Structures are given as structure tokens and as C-alpha cells.
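Supplementary material to the annual report.
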Amino acid sequence: MAGVVIIGAGLGGLRVAETLRASGYAGEVTIVGDEIHLPYNRPPLSKEALAGGVEVADLEFRRKAHVDDVTWKLGSPAVTSNLKEGTVTLADGTVLHFDALAVAAGIRPRRLPIPGPQAGRVVLRTADDAQELRAALVPGAKVLIMGAGFIGCEVAATARKVGCEVSIVALDAEPMIRPLGAELGAGMRRRHEANGVNFYLGRTITSFNGTDHVESATLDDGTVLACDIVVEAVGSMANVEWLDGNGLDLGDGLSVDDAMIVEGTSNVVAVGDIARHHNALFSGPKRRIEHWNMPTETGKRAGQTLAALLAGEEVSRAPFSAMPSFWSDQYSHKIQSFGMPGNATRIEIVSGSPDEACIAEYFDQSGLVGVIGIDKTSELAPYRKLLMERG
Amino acid sequence: MIKVSIDMDKCQHYGQCCFEAPDVFALDADGKITYVAEVADDRRDDVESAADVCPMQAIEIS
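Predicted assembly:
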């Protein structure tokens, strides 16, 4: 009895397991997680769960009855693997044998090698990270955020709500410039500034200062910013090191085909943040898409693939097609996106202005590739249909 | 019949559910979610999909 081993106990891993069962696979399913928690929803970690009052148990995904019989191995990440022999070794020494493997190991925050004390420098990816950061977010605390992407901006909004003093240092010219573009990014910056956030854009941090704990940061222009806590939100790295030595290209996640089968393998699928795939709705090279809805889209497809493979049936090679979509809540504002606005070469604001409720359309050579609305949820829906028709 | 409910403390009115089961979930003119609380059993798959894609995981089915 080897069955299916799923590395990663997040949303993607859960969706693979659910789909295996829903597709009739009755063999063994083992889900391995590096965290001790059952699959939970991460978006609230930078918002409700950070402001307090929401615990990880409140964030657990509804687990459907048909996955009651999967085996959970939590708190011990995969450390090595031998795909030819069909084995994965976990940090606690356990060796798992598999007939098929699903890689749903996700990403982790990138850390920059900046000199100075480590204590007081945190990242935000897991429920435990959120708990650590929450303890530091007290009224009056000086919070320095590295990175002006979505996580950095959401943490800034939450920290202001709690009553912290907040600075954002980022190399980018505007917050969330990819994918919002400069105009909407500037509009969101002004909203943050109106709420008391200080921006240091086009800047990097050259050192952290303090004896045991971070007390200040020195920027590349010599500015010194006092801080009690530093949140590092400067991008991510795929958790693929445990696949080293199998002859796979691990340079940018894992390249998969339309069935989510990892290039160079026959019984390994990858899903979620680390799966680099084509999308029939959008031309161009394979891409990893770190949006919340993609683990569900890729996980369902990968589950179907494995169920067919293990039943000896033909695997569907139909083009993979999914609408990328993201959302962000900052203060009372809602940003919502459909498509691939980050690919755009031209942006047109078609409704409102960047400082009020607005909609922007994003174009490349092929035409409309994405849409982003700020506080325009109901008017955005028709765009999704329009973008779906590209396929 | 399937009983559908939305935890309105969690719901942020993103409207993702409306794409999966448009006969059950809808956004009104103010951008607020409205839904049908009881639906036929044969709608289960789409209602389950709607619950799966809710970013706030606010939809409950019984």
C-alpha cells in the first residue's frame, strides 16, 4: 500500500485529496504538512487574524466527509525525495512510499541578507507568524514594513487600525505597482498616507541597528528610521529544495503540463503557488500565479489527473484554463482583479479616478488581459465573462 | 433540500460564489451578496463549488 502522497497541507493539498476521493480513488492518501495545523485559510492572516480575535481554528477549511480517511502527517516537512524509487523522506526520518506524488508545498517569504540584529524581524506566511506579529502590534509600536506589495500594504492597514506607527520602505516607485500600475498604485498610496502611513519609496535598507533587538533601520540615502518590529514582505521562494537530485528544473517552481504533471515525470503533479503552467485564456510563457484561487483550480485538475492515472484510465490533456483573480482589503477599500493585469503594456482608467472608486482596464498586444477595480465589486463582474471568452 | 447560509460577519461581498452558482448567489445593486437559503439537492455540486471559492470561507451548507 503506497497510494498518493501529497506534500503540502494547505489549500492546494486539500483540494487534490478532495478531488481524488470525489473522482472515485479509494487508495491510501497521505498529506504531509510542515506546519502543525490542518489546512486553513491564509488571507485573514494579514487582516482579521492580525488585528486579534480570530484564531487558527476559526480559519480551518471545511473538510468534506469524503476526506475523513486521509492520513495527516503534520509538523514535519519533506526533506529529500527519490522520484524513481517513489519515496519521500520527512524531517522526522519517516520514509513515505508513493504510487503518485502531489507537490503542494507552496512558497515561503524571501529573506534578504541585511546586516544587523535578527530579533524583531518577522515575516508573515503562517498562522504562527501571524500570532508572533500580532503580539508586537500594540498601540504606539513603531512598525517598519519592508516591501510595498499586497502583504506589506495589508499589514500596514491593519497595524494602523491597531494604532501602531507605520513606515513602508520599498524599492518600487508606488505600492502594489505590479499589478496595479503607477496610477492606481499612487491612488492607494494616498489612501495609506491619509491613514497615517509614511512611505520611503525607491529606497532599500542597508542595515538594521540595535544591540540584541532591532531598534532602527538605515536606508540607502542615510535616513535612519526607529522601529520596534520589522515585517519583511519582499517576495517569496518556492519550497522545492526537497526535490533536488531528481533531475528537475527547480529554477522557478515546477513546470507542469495542462494535466498538472511535472515536466520530466509521469506520476508527479504540482499545484498552487509553485506550479508553473500555461493558461488557455492568456498567451505567453508558463507562469506561476500566486493568487488565492489557483490552488483550487490547479488542485482539482491535478486530483482528476491522478485519479485517472491510478485507475489506468486516459488522462485528460485538455488545455488548462482558469481565471486568475485576487482581492485585497485595506482600510475600508476593496481592490479586486480578474485576469493578468501584470502583463499589461497599456492601462486605461475607464471609470472614476485613482483617488475614488474606479475601474482600470489592462491591455497587451492581444487586447484586454485584465481589469482591476477599487470599491467597484458589482461593476467588475461582467469583465470576468468578457475575459473568459478569450479562451 | 440543501440549506445554504452565509456568515455575514465573514462575508466581504467579493461575489466569487455568484460565478459558480448564479441561481443561488447574487450581488445586488449596492454590491451586497444575496442568496437563496434553500435549494434543490441537484444543485449540490455548484453550491459546494461556490463554498470552495469563497475567499472568506463564509458559506455554510447542510
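Chain B touches chain A through 20 residues (CB under 8 Å).
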